[in-house]
Amino acid sequence: MYFPDLLKHPQFYNLKSTLLSCGRRSVRAYLRQTIAVPPDARVLEVGCGAGRHAGTFSARYVGVDLSWAYLSYAAAHRPGRFARMDATCLGFPDGKFEFVFCVGLCHHLPDAAVAAAMAEMKRVIRPGGNVCVVDAVVPASPNVPGRVLCALDRGEHLRPLERLAALLRAQGLRLHCANIPGSFPYQRAVFLGAWGWRVEKHPGPRAALTA
Ligand SMILES: C[S@@+](CC[C@H](N)C(=O)[O-])C[C@H]1O[C@@H](n2cnc3c(N)ncnc32)[C@H](O)[C@@H]1O
């Protein structure tokens, strides 16, 4: 069995994530510290995997993913509700959620599917809602371990920061943070589409593209 096949198992995926992050919970901690979501907001995570980010923002959490294995694990071990859906064709009515986010989804999708997924994420937020996208990008040189991990990643569409930023800018999202502190060896960028309440607790450490 190859490494990418092993990652299809939620327990192995969780183990890999914990080992690579050396036990740090950088994404979750960063989102909690910097993104303001009302505690009673209806929250959707698209591409939720095994549900690691369930409960990060609100108890009213719904996670959707394509993988039955991840969804079964999440339903048994994480708070919230889970359903199988394709990010590019969400089975929710318009305006169902106050906040929609995804972590690590875009690098699994080709450009057209990223655009379709973003259109769907915007469709299901109510007027005045917000969207947040967190994704790995090809790390800036000379991060050799990060580049090796990118080469081994199951996602076939890892992009440089500027490329992902351009794709998401076309959907109305802007760069909030170019690299979540503590993500090494990954480089993880955060983008916001903020049409409602003030979603940043404070401005991101690098709110503009510098490269
Ligand atoms: C890198 S994992 C991230 C999982 C989770 N967000 C996390 O941070 O642990 C990417 C997830 O996106 C899901 N995915 C890929 N393409 C998808 C699609 N078209 N619709 C929904 N989910 C998708 C995969 O099944 C996988 O669970």
Mean pLDDT: 88
Strand order of the largest sheet: 3-2-1-4-5-7-6
What is the tally of beta strands? 7
Order of helices and strands: HHHEEHEEHEHHEE
CATH superfamily: Vaccinia Virus protein VP39
Fraction in beta strands: 15-25%
The computed structural class is alpha/beta
CATH names the topology as: Rossmann fold
Number of domains: 1
Please tally the helical runs, counting DSSP H or I stretches of 4 or more residues.
7
The hetero molecules present are:
S-adenosylmethionine
Q: Give helix % range.
A: 25-40%
Kindly provide the radius of gyration, computed on alpha-carbon positions and rounded to a whole number of angstroms: 16 Å
* General form: globular
Q: In whole angstroms, how far apart are the ends?
A: 40 Å
Regions with little confidence, pLDDT below 50 for 5+ residues: 206-211
Largest sheet, in brief, is:
7 strands, mixed
Determine the oligomeric state from the structure.
single chain
At CATH's second level, what is the architecture?
3-Layer(aba) Sandwich
What can you see in these coordinates?
The structure is a single chain. The protein is α/β, with parallel strands linked by helices and about 210 residues long. It has one domain (about 5-195): 3-Layer(aba) Sandwich (Rossmann fold). The chain has 7 helices and 7 strands; from the N terminus they run H-H-H-E-E-H-E-E-H-E-H-H-E-E. Strands 3-2-1-4-5-7-6 form a 7-stranded mixed β-sheet, sandwiched between helices. S-adenosylmethionine binds near residues 48, 53, 67, 88 and 104. S-adenosylmethionine binds near residues 65, 88, 104 and 108.
